[in-house]
Each structure stands twice: as C-alpha cells, then as structure tokens.
Amino acid sequence: MINEKHKIVLFDGICNFCNASVNFVIDHDKKDLYKFASLQSSIGQKYLKNFDFTLDDFDTFILIDGDKFYTSSTAALMVAKDLDGITKYLYYFIFIPPLFRDIIYK
Fold first, then answer.
1. Is residue 1 part of a domain?
2. What pLDDT sits at residue 104?
3. Measured CA angle at 38 (ends 73, 53), to 5 deg
4. What is the rounded average pLDDT for all residues in the chain?
5. Model-level pTM?
C-alpha cells in the first residue's frame, strides 16, 4: 500500500536495464521508501496524466515525491541518495549540470 512516506518510481517496463535498476533499488531500499509502476501500466498512466507527461513516451525514468517529480539523471540521483551503502554517495553528482548528466544518463 502506498502512503505519504513512499516515493513512486515510474520506469519503462519493457526495458531490461530499467527492470534491473528497479531490482537494484528494491535490494538496497532498506527504509522501504519506494514503490514502483511501469510507465505502461494503468497506475503509471494515471501518474503521467496527473503530472502532464505524454502518455506514450516511455524513454524516461520518473521519481514522484509527494507533489514534486524528477526525471532522468536527477530522478536516479535522488533515488541513490536514499539507498544504503556506497550508492548514496552518487547523489553528489547532482552538482553537475543536468545537461551533462542527462547525456551520460541516456
């Protein structure tokens, strides 16, 4: 069940790398902060509508945290910040401008 403490990760359910990334987050989310939905699912589509995203562009990764959302490398770094182990230190790449981070992310 989703409550206010949970953050929602929307991902491309067909992408093998995306699925592997979701499994990585599940394995390292010791605080149980994250819930997941594929962009193609009815729940994913509902969130896309709520945040005015296109409903057929699945080439992205979206983090929804309350009434805020983050995409691409920013979303990945915000998730990394909450994980256990050395992964949380990846967050410091947030200081690199998104233009450059997103090129590497893609």
1. no
2. 85
3. 65
4. 90
5. 0.87
The answer to the question of residue 2 being in a domain is no
Residues 6 or more apart whose Cβ sits within 8 Å of residue 41: 13
CATH number, domain containing residue 99 = 3.40.30
| Strands, E assignment, 31-87 | 34-38, 62-65, 68-71
Structural domain boundaries, residue 69: 7-105
Q: How many Cα neighbours within 13 Å face the side chain of 86?
A: 0
Residues with Cβ within 8 Å of residue 54, at least 6 apart in sequence: 48
Q: Is-contact 48 54, C-beta < 8 A?
A: yes
Residue 82 identity (one-letter amino acid): D
- Exposure string of 51-67, with b = 16+ CB inside 10 Å and e = fewer, is eebeeeebebbbbbeee
Those residues whose C-beta lies under 8 Å from the C-beta of residue 9, and which sit 6 or more positions away, are 22, 25, 34, 35, 36, 37, 61, 62, 63, 64, 75, 79
**Residue 66, phi then psi, degrees to nearest 5:** 65, -120
